[in-house]
Design goal:
single chain; about 350 residues; alpha/beta; Rossmann fold; Arc Repressor Mutant, subunit A; 3 domains; nine-stranded mixed sheet; three-stranded antiparallel sheet; 17 helices; 12 strands; elongated
């Protein structure tokens, strides 16, 4: 373990070179103990690489191990049997993974990525939440980047139905954005948060792109929700294509800049996705999915005079909920739900308890 951390944090070798050296020498310790002469025989190592590998100080690596032990952070190395096999297949596999929570047996599960806009519309937020919830109910394990917007909604939806995993582009002890601390803790309780960056590590702009390759590498497919022309989720989709994974895209307005990236993915051959079945149908020959769970609400006393949509909304309010969650649970557009809630408030069947939060009256 200490030699893997030394290789990634002290020698600072690129992931592809580090993992290749581990395989060729038999272990990370083998790399550490390799002579300069042996290393110079490796055609893919340059002078800077060999000089960096000459730094044999293990103090930084040991400090990282000590921090992880104090904070309950698990360390999974490239040589560990628990290391996800799917990640071994990709270009630039992370040398070390830092984990908070319980890492599931990823190779035995259909892991599916959900990513998208940091500033999605209400409809996109509701769609991401609903898709993640239904795919989790069916037996998939949702992975996201825990970014603001679509990623966070996907994690919330998955947690409603089971567990989930999130890959950080920051240090394992520094979720981003800070407003996601609550979600970070919720994921740890029911799933796992993963990062290739140790506690206290600095964050760089490229760190989030590097995070995206892990999301795609872990997944059998990736769903992109509302990607603009320069959206980071397009990087995740490109990684997925490079790794031979499926790419799914929810459709958007052809004239909207906010959907330009999504529509370009559709034109290039991504799967049009409007419901969970559009995803599940592509993998049914490989996995035995469960039917989505339903909630028994037959005992609810329904007020008179409600339309069918208003009845669905009333049934969904078994607890106070935000408008976007109501829309996701009812599979209705957010604007339509907002209009119905206004009518229901006037009828006295629901009331607003906070910003865009409603409950039965």
């Amino acid at each position: 373990m200490i030699y893997h951390i030394w290789l990634s944090q002290c020698a600072k070798l690129s992931c592809d070179k580090a993992c290749r050296l581990i395989c060729e020498t038999g272990s990370a310790e083998g790399v550490y103990r390799a002579s300069g002469h042996t290393l110079r025989q490796k055609s893919y190592l340059n002078g800077a690489d060999i000089e960096a590998l000459g730094n044999k100080d293990l103090k930084i690596a040991q400090d990282i191990i000590d921090k992880c032990q104090r904070s309950g952070i698990d360390i999974i190395t490239f040589s560990d049997k628990r290391y996800p096999g799917a990640l071994r297949e990709i270009h630039l596999p992370p040398v070390v993974l830092y984990v908070r929570g319980r890492m599931p047996d990823i190779d035995a599960l259909p892991v599916f990525g959900v990513v998208g806009s940091r500033k999605p519309s209400l409809d996109s937020s509701a769609f991401a939440l609903k898709m993640a919830q239904e795919l989790t109910q069916a037996g998939m394990l949702i992975v996201s980047g825990m970014a603001q917007g679509v990623d966070s909604k996907a994690a919330e939806g998955a947690l409603k139905a089971g567990s989930t995993i999130a890959v950080l582009g920051t240090a394992i002890d520094k979720p981003y954005p800070k407003s996601n601390w609550g979600l970070y803790r919720d994921i740890i309780k029911k799933g796992a948060v993963i990062s290739e960056y140790p506690p206290g590590a600095r964050t760089y702009p490229d760190s989030f792109i590097e995070r995206n390759r892990i999301i795609s590498g872990l997944s059998i497919g990736v769903l992109v929700v509302q990607a603009g022309k320069k959206s980071g989720s397009l990087k995740t989709a490109r990684f997925a294509e490079d790794f031979g994974r499926y790419v799914f895209v929810s459709p958007g307005l052809p004239t909207s800049d906010e959907w330009e990236g999504s529509n370009e993915l559709l034109r290039s051959g991504a799967f049009y996705t409007a419901c969970a079945e559009d995803v599940l149908s592509q993998f049914r020959t490989r996995y035995n999915f469960s039917a989505p769970q339903t909630i028994d609400r037959s005992s609810v006393c329904m007020p008179e005079g409600l339309s069918k949509d208003e009845q669905k909304i009333y049934l969904a309010l078994e607890e106070p909920k935000r408008l976007d969650r109501i829309a996701a649970d009812c599979a209705l557009p957010a604007e339509q739900v907002a209009a119905a809630l206004t009518v229901m408030e006037l009828m006295g069947t629901v009331e607003q308890t906070g910003t865009q939060t409603f409950k039965r009256k």
